Amino acid sequence: MLIEQPPLLYRLLFPEAIWRIKRKKRKVAYITFDDGPIPEVTPWVLDVLDRYNVKATFFMVGDNVRRYPELFEEIKRRGHSYGNHTMHHLQGFKTPRRKYLVDITKANRLIDSSLFRPPHGLISTGQAKAIKNHYNIIMYDLVTRDYSKRMTPEKVMDNIRKRVRNGSIIVFHDSLKAERNMKTVLPQALEWLQSKGYELLPITAE
After folding, report:
1. What DSSP letter does each residue of 150-202 carry, written as one string?
2. Do 66 and 57 meet the contact criterion of CB atoms below 8 Å apart?
3. With contact defined as beta carbons under 8 Å apart, do 169 and 140 qualify?
4. Using an 8 Å Cβ cutoff, are 190 and 200 in contact?
5. CB count, 10 Å around CB of 23?
6. Which residues form the catalytic set?
7. 24-52 pLDDT per residue, tens
8. How many Å separate Cα 115 from the centre of its chain?
9. Which of 64, 78, 88, 177 is deepest in the core (most CB within 10 A)?
10. Residue 72's closest CA among 179, 140, 174, 183?
């Protein structure tokens, strides 16, 4: 539960971060992807999103954007929103503040977005305060855990069914580690969420 849906106490430590985005009179959820783009997975994700007419938000590692600029352009061309996930997928708790901020800036030279998500959802309060005036810090309300070898596709899908709620920011991964679970679950999740009346929206800087 601590991983799948961050507890209130952890959320309160970072008042500058966005964990959930509720809309009045609308039942919404936000599909997001971390760690891409990579040629083995991201094009497949884009095609599935097109099939269900869904726009998502991609939090991209700057070094992957550097290596695969054509995938970054394709994400933009298809109308998805996107954000910074650091240049080298650095974990905030393990990285000195100055090094962390420099890494974010390097990624932003390639990505140019005001949206930022810390890798692993881990960031120090000092790091968060240092970047809050430059970026919208987008956390999450539901982590699918598609990346876990201990999770089956059935368990990942069950996690979504049990914990999604109005305004949930849902995390998938367009990564090799998550590929097995994600490729099974993503179409099921999109279909199920839409059948339950959720409007699936991209995150914007508004």
Report:
1. T--HHHHHHHHHHH--TTEEEEEE-STTTHHHHHHHHHHHHHHHHHTT-EE--
2. no
3. yes
4. yes
5. 11
6. 34, 173
7. 788 999 999 999 999 999 999 999 999 99
8. 10
9. 64
10. 174
Place of tokens 């005036």: 133
SS3 state of residue 115: strand
CA distance 61 to 32: 14
Secondary structure letter of residue 20 according to DSSP: B
- Statement: residue 200 has pLDDT above 80: yes
Give the separation between CA 71 and CA 43, rounded to whole angstroms. 8
Q: What pLDDT is recorded for position 22?
A: 85
Which class would CATH give 8-200?
Answer: alpha beta
What is the mean predicted confidence (pLDDT) over 125-153? 96
What's the CA angle centered on 7, arms 21 and 147, to 5 degrees?
80
Q: What is the 3-state secondary structure (H, E, C) of 69-112?
A: HHHHHHHHHCCCEEEECCCCCCCHHHCCHHHHHHHHHHHHHHHC
Tokens of 200: 């699936």
What whole-number percentage of the chain has pLDDT above 70? 99
The tens digit of pLDDT for each residue in 88-116 reads: 999 999 999 999 999 999 999 999 999 99
pTM, rounded to two decimals = 0.96
